[in-house]
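[job 4471] stage=fold_predict status=RUNNING
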Amino acid sequence: MKKFLIIVEGDADKKFVEDYYHHLFRMVAPKDSIYASGGYKNLSNESILQRMRMNTDQGGVNLVIFDADDDYEARWKELSSIKERDGVEFELFLLPDNRDAGALEDMLENIINTRNRPILDCWENYEKELVQLQIEGRTPPPLTTPAKKTKIYGYLEALLGESKNEKKKIKEKERDYENTLHWDLDAEYLERLKVFLTKSLIG
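[job 4471] inference complete, writing structure tokens
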């Protein structure tokens, strides 16, 4: 296994990558090897650039796993330009699948345990009904559809118990993506990410 630094955007991404790393390689990622940058715009912050340069100097590989958001091509071009401009080396993967627009939450929707699909079907029906509602005094229509993050919270909340300890497991930092009752880390949807990580870290 090569020495590595994986840079992600936020806490939710960090926890997922930690769990997925453990699932793939059956080991805990070394301390400080997975770092949450706080957002894609922070990749060019000098402190993060220095982390990457130092890791490269020590023979390590830098991986950046960020959201594609609304425009995959534009985000790829924007982030890739940092390599030449700031003199750093890294391999790039854009969620959800290194091909389409989207984010972590889009990926998560595609790796839920298929037995739980009715929960998301129910949520999607709720969204369809919501945009058709006319609420007096609410201008302009339609009503705002909840964010994708809210859908993932709702998915887990429906499955977990009502105790304080169970509710804690809904939070981004506390989720257990290796819980096979909730998630399928062997889902075909993750094949591109699996190949990216195994090729980058093992060769």
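[job 4471] summary: The longest strand covers residues 61-67.
[job 4471] exit 0
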